[in-house]
Amino acid sequence: MVHRARASHIGSALSIADILAVLYARVLRFDPAQPAAPDRDRFVLSKGHACVALYAALAEIGCFPVKELDEYGQDFSRLMNHVSHHVPGVEFSTGSLGHGLPFAAGKALAGKIAKQPWQVFVLLSDGEMDEGSNWEALMFAAHHGLDNLTAIIDYNKLQSLDTVDNTLGLEPLREKLAAFNWSVVEADGHDHDALESAIGSGSPGLPLVVIAHTVKGKGVSFMENEVLWHYRNPDDGLLDRALKDIAGSQRDA
Amino acid sequence: MPGRKGMRDAFLNELLALAEVQPNVVLVVGDLGFGVVEPFADRFPERFFNAGVAEQNMMSLCAGLASEGCHVFAYSIANFPTFRCAEQIRNDVDYHNLPVTIVSVGGGVAYGNLGYSHHALQDYALMRVLPNMLIAAPGDPWETRACLRYLIDNPGPSYLRLGKSGEASVHSHVPEVSPGQWLKVQGQPESTSAIVTTGATLAIAQAWLARGEYPEHNLYSLPLWGMRQKQYQAAQVEQFQRVVTAEDHIADAGFGSWFREALHDGRSSCEVSSRALSAEVFGKVGAQSTLNALGGL
Predict the structure, then answer these.
(1) Using one digit for the tens of pLDDT, what is the confidence trace for A128-157?
(2) Inter-residue contact A150 to A202 (CB < 8 Å)
(3) A220 Cβ partners below 8 Å, 6+ apart?
(4) Which helix (H) or strand (E) holds A179?
(5) Minimal Cα–Cα distance from B249 to chain A, Å?
(6) What ipTM was predicted for this assembly?
(7) Does A85 touch chain B (CB under 8 A)?
């Protein structure tokens, strides 16, 4: 998709592929045949630039034909290069960072007002924790005891120009989030069992945040931990190498 | 009775009445509204939230609430619920076409003495470029009630621009309002000149007429307008040779600009002029009437 559309952000998408796999295969109560069912769990992708991973997941589970993925980023495609709510199964369009968590907090609050059993999940990038709006939302969600809200931070330690540490250091992240009165758990963001367990570890009365330690560009040797792959799109030769890498890691797994 | 206490109280009283019959009405405030919002908070504690001094989160969470079926009223002062969270309004509320009514108290220079931070002089400019946004700028407390009823019956992204307190009643009852449609306040059927105002400028324009500044002009209020309502203006202009628009907003990118753009095809022979605040008011402090006069109203 990224190759064909000459798009960016493949590293960001590979970073969250395992998280999405766990959410859609094991966690979310979500029926692809009824993507707007009132009792569904809600998932918000705040790092909208990583949308290819979500589009692929939604197509794989049957929200829309896999073949449509070929239209990603093409003229007038609904599969635009930042996640779009015009795509079946997508709750919310993002692309500007710092919007997903506040929006998800509003959804969770609505669920509380209406005493609904469904849950709200939101996936954020580490870089977007620079946004003040996220910290506003962290305060709000904790103040209102939104234990139907789970935030997952894709902590791959790289942002758009440099490492997180060299940009605006987040550490000590766990302690910061705990000080904001969230239940905090850390997990290997590529270990499916560990992720499932972490996401299921919420406490009554507290919103839950999972710090998922990930690798940007995960699964493609020459993309892993390389800022370059926040932007670059693979040419024919590199696409071939990348696909062989991923096929190899799947065979090894 | 609305009128004596102004638009802000008319808004709250009407919202209270509507919330009784509309269980999805939610009021979110940005840590403002002391002495105004308490009756709602007391009557509907489960539908009242103080989002704190955090407007970006407030606006996105209002969008989240609205995405689950609430009609959310996001209440604050002047620029706080508009410019401070402009992108949240653009991306989350307007693009997703969600029923959030942004309520801004202190339109124009209603908070004249509080200084530039509290002057809402450019808010129309922001709201009128959002494709789904309906601006509701009532001219008096009665129009405030009328606009609120319309917005509740027709939920969508909207911007309710209120004065503060003490606005005079121009009408004597709740008028019928409709998006893009001029509401006749006074004048003769055969008149060929008109003043069209939006927002609290209505009473000012009425005073102009009373003083004889615009002989034989009809007076209209246009409380509901936005990008989608431009198409209705040409037909209403047809019977007039002269139209004066009036607003307590900076002339640039405001109501008068909108009005002229709506007639931009050049087929109208109507002469349009505008009364709006001039750049003189930027950074000046003073009573609302003082600053309006300084700015040319």
Answers:
(1) 999 999 999 999 999 999 999 999 999 999
(2) yes
(3) A10, A14, A229, A241, A242, A245, A246
(4) helix A173-179
(5) 29
(6) 0.96
(7) yes
